[in-house]
Amino acid sequence: MKLDATDLRYISSDAFRVLSAAEQGSKNHEIVPSSLIAQLAGSRAGGVNKALGELAKKKLVAKVQNAKYEGYRLTYGGYDFLACRTFAKRDTIYSVGNQIGTGKESDIYVVADDEGQQMVMKIHRLGRMSFRAIKSKRDYLRKGQSASWMYMSRLAAIKEYAFMKVLHDHGFPVPQPIDQSRHCLIMELIDAFPLRQISAVPSPGALYSLLMDMIVRLARSGLIHGDFNEFNLLIRDHRTEAEKDRDDETPDERDARVAREGGDHPVKVELEGDEYDERRRREKEGTLLEPVLIDFPQMVSTDHPDAEYYFNRDVECIRIFFARRFKYESSVYPKFTAVVRDGVREFDLDVEVAASGFKKEDRRALEEYMAELAAHDAANPQEVASDEEYSDESAASGDEDEDEDEVEQVDEQDDPAAPTSAPRPRPAAGV
Ligand code: ADP
Ligand code: MG
Prior knowledge:
Its cofactor is Mg(2+). It catalyses: L-seryl-[protein] + ATP = O-phospho-L-seryl-[protein] + ADP + H(+); L-threonyl-[protein] + ATP = O-phospho-L-threonyl-[protein] + ADP + H(+). The structure is a single chain. This protein has helices at residues 13-26, 34-41, 45-57, 76-89, 131-134, 148-169, 204-220, 241-248, 251-261, 273-285, 307-326, 336-341, 349-355, 360-379, 381-385, 392-397; strands at 32-33, 61-65, 70-74, 95-102, 106-112, 118-124, 177-181, 184-188, 193-194, 223-224, 233-237, 289-293, 300-301, 408-409. By secondary structure, it is α+β, with helices and mostly antiparallel strands. Among the domains are: 1-86 and 411-426, Arc Repressor Mutant, subunit A; 193-355, Transferase(Phosphotransferase), domain 1. The strands form four sheets. Strands 4-5-6-8-7 form a five-stranded antiparallel beta sheet, sandwiched between helices. It has a four-stranded mixed beta sheet with strand order 1-3-2-14. Helix 1 crosses helix 2, helix 1 (13-26) packs across helix 3 (45-57) and helix 7 (204-220) packs antiparallel against helix 11. The protein binds adenosine-5'-diphosphate and magnesium ion. Adenosine-5'-diphosphate (ADP) is lined by residues 100-101, 103, 105-106, 108, 120, 122, 175, 187-190, 194, 231-232, 234, 294-295.
């Protein structure tokens, strides 16, 4: 879904009050009755209707008619708007720029403050695809009626922010967290490519060790990333352009160069002063390529019942990637039992996250939801490929002449009884 920043500053104060009322009402109603919106906004019905019209036109809310009452649903666009407005009010952001990523469950934008300092805004969109199939499982619906996409997306953002903050405070290489509101968070922009886009490295062994050390250090702090892979590792590249070209050479290109130059001479690195010293330090440390870890909503504690599985999967992801991409294989890799057996922890980050205000029950709700989502996705691969489910705003956006009074008809009936426990996305034994 596209985030339309042009509307950010142009909305009447009445409309804003009504939008806030719709948000408030969404905590207990997926479809908020118009009368409740009016009551929460504390305005006359006439004024509220006009404001709702304005909001519907901007697709910040959508009108819904069901069997019992007329109401409005806050759209993702409306929720985005409210979060952006909060960030703008706090002077965290001033403008919204390009979208740089679309994950299955998130959108990533470059944003900037009023001095042009760039940052990243991550918008969580849980349930974008599988929500309708899953929402019948009312564990996730606090009172059975709330808009659970909002609730879960917000939990994901709160969780990600809490983990990023604790990790950053303890010197882990992660983006600096800057702000959080609703389903969005703002963080430092890392000027780097994902590992996935790096075709060759000078010393795969050095990078491999850095990554395995990171997994171990996390586990010794009580945490497992849970999605430690080539997409979630951004690599700050301190090589010179000439060095990158050299590392990317094919064997034929290498032979041609050696013949041309009469030998395999090292790349000349022309740096002076501090830059030269910094460079020497990196060479010594083996950090010419410097990994930064991102994407934390699925992090789990080493006390989680499936901790060993998640730990091994993280390790395995890196091993497989290095073998395929860099033809680097090592018999040395961390084992969960060895890492956590002695029970020695450098710190208990898990406990610190709990102390940061991310509640245990919220955490459990999110973990269960994500596990079910993964199980659902695994069982419905065709759905994962399409981005249509629940993205009503984007589906409608191509339709310029759409009647602003268009009404969704929904079936008031509850979902038929659904099983309360889905299989965990656990692997077969031996992974
Ligand atoms: P998802 O949960 O959708 O995988 P990620 O947090 O992994 O979301 O972000 C998706 C992509 O957006 C990343 O692979 C990366 O390319 C880019 N990205 C995310 N955060 C940052 C950041 N702080 N700086 C630079 N790029 C980022
Ligand atoms: Mg990711």
